[in-house]
Amino acid sequence: MPSTLVTGLRERVPSLTAIPLPRAVDRKVLDKTRPSEPFAEPPPGSGLKPVPGDFGPAFVGHSVEYIRYGLDFALRRYERYGPVSWSGMLGERMINLVGPDAAQQVLANGDKAFAQEGWHFFIDKFFHRGLMLLDFDEHKFHRRIMQQAFTRPRMAGYADHVTAAVRAGMRDWPTGQRLRMYWQLKRLTLDIASRVFMDARPGSDTERINRAFVDTVRASTAVVRYPVPFGRWSAGLRGRRRLERYFADNLPAKRASDGSDLFTALCHATTEDGERFSDDDIVNHMIFLMMAAHDTSTITSTAVMYYLGKHPEWQDRVREESLALGDDLPDLAALDSLHSLDLVIKEALRLVAPVPSLPRKTTKDVDILGHYVPAGSFVGLSPMVTHFLPEYWSDPMRFDPERFAEDRREDKSHRFAWVPFGGGAHKCIGMHFGMIEVKALLHEMLRTYRWRLPEKYQARWDYVALPVPVDGLPVQLHRH
Predict the structure, then answer these.
(1) How far apart are CA 94 and CA 357, in angstroms?
(2) pLDDT for res 155
(3) Residues 6+ apart with CB under 8 A from 54
(4) Can you give the pLDDT at residue 204?
(5) Is the dihedral of CA 378, 383, 387, 388 positive or negative?
(6) Angle between helix 279-310 and helix 431-448 axes, rounded to 10 deg
């Protein structure tokens, strides 16, 4: 089947779990409860409570409910069981953690009780030895080298490339008709990542590499985790092999280059002690960084466009700021000056956490909020639910960017109340780059277009991998 046809089908046909059902059916599924069972019995005399929960349907557990209902499902689990519970996910038992206190314990990880091995089940086959999958001293070693590619001067150079790529890529978007904006943005962010990270120009090779990245991401939450023909797992494995070949083939030229792209920067990154990456390290890190850079930026940009479409008064406010910058391509300082847009992006990150769950694996028996969690347990910290707790966020279901303004700063109600980028030693190394990219995208959208959503439109998010609008977010653009 031609790749363009496959791509078109994927953009227009939702996953099976997202196909519309009668509301009564959805309510019945969400309202269904099962008897609670202890995850594990606490040691006698420990004073700890067992983790409550249930596995769900045989084999797959609650995977289908989570993928289909996302936040609604997760909030109901929290309301029933509290901040520490367990459920079946993709055939495994997963402990679900909610709230800033749990986030602080897991992310600060002072006693090294939580390992990144929790990610391995989901993505190690496709993003093997990416920075996020490394632990403790090894992670610290790799992060220290990688940090040389994310210095302020480097970021300023990346910003110049991003703004130019955004303006060129967005120039000819059609107006007066409905576009599936998520897919428009996804293609653009892939092209930006290819340009900034690899200095690759649009073309057939870039399209094949971009397709490989999409396949690896989609494979991470495949229900059938075996290489059956035409399955997501098989496509993900093929994508990983293609990416390994691409980066390995291009690595010698990047070692000899003095370019300003991230690939070249990683090839030359050296600490004060002379530490550098091996060739295998660079291949693994590039595959992971390309995924991390474009996917979360696409989700966040899509969420911002959705909420600005729902709230035209905010769209007008942030557009006024962008127009005040004039027609020149904005540099890093100009992007930093877009304060209202910054508030909107932070609120979008709260409402639609790009990474809804942060998995870990316990290295030893541990007490989590008074509950007994044995060594070797999968745990998943939920930014998605944490961002909706009313004890930290006023009217949490409401779009209210002003909650991040200096006179309110609800995100400071607890150090770990707002965790879209994680925290602690594993806080996203590319979060500043991600904010630059999203700001550049939205700035160009605002100065070039106005947009609106269908009347009474409410987005539904598909959680088959990371949150994606089921219908691609239908948006109609009009030239400003």
Answers:
(1) 11
(2) 94
(3) 34, 35, 36, 37, 86, 87, 88
(4) 56
(5) negative
(6) 40
Query: From the centroid of its chain, how far is CA 82?
Result: 25
pLDDT tens for 364-408 read 999 999 999 999 999 999 999 999 999 999 999 999 999 999 999
Residue 327, both tokens = 């027609």
Our separate counts of H helices and E strands in the chain read 18, 14
Give pLDDT, residue 1.
44
Q: Which of 419, 182, 436 is nearest to 301 (CA)?
A: 182
Neighbours of 406 (CB within 10 A): 7
pLDDT of 40 above 90: yes
C-alpha triplet 138, 139, 145: angle, nearest 5°? 95
Closest listed residue to residue 55, CA positions, set 80, 96, 92: 92
Question: Which single residue is written with the structure tokens 């290489």?
Answer: 227
Q: What pLDDT shows up at residue 229?
A: 86
Residue 143: how many other CB atoms lie within 10 Å? 16
> What is the tens place of the pLDDT at every residue in 122-158?
899 999 999 999 999 999 999 999 999 999 999 999 9
Element at 275 (helix H, strand E): none
Nearest partner of 126 among 240, 228, 235, 229, judged by Cα: 240
Q: How far apart are CA 396 and CA 21, in angstroms?
A: 27
Question: Using an 8 Å Cβ cutoff, are 347 and 435 in contact?
Answer: no
Tokens of 38: 């202890």
State the alpha helices, DSSP H only, in 70-180: 71-81, 100-108, 117-123, 136-146, 152-170
Q: CA-CA distance, 442 to 358, in Å (whole number)?
A: 27
* pLDDT tens per residue across span 281-318: 999 999 999 888 778 999 999 999 999 999 999 999 99
CB atoms within 10 A of CB 23: 8
Q: Which domains does the chain have, with CATH numbers?
A: 3-479 (1.10.630.10)
CA distance 257 to 198: 12
Q: Can you spell out the DSSP letters for 345-389?
A: HHHHHHHS-SS--EEEEESS-EEETTEEE-TT-EEEE-HHHHTT-
Kindly provide the residue ranges of all beta strands, DSSP E only, lying in 143-269, ordered along the sequence.
178-180
Residue type, 102: A
Q: How far apart are CA 11 and CA 6, in angstroms?
A: 9
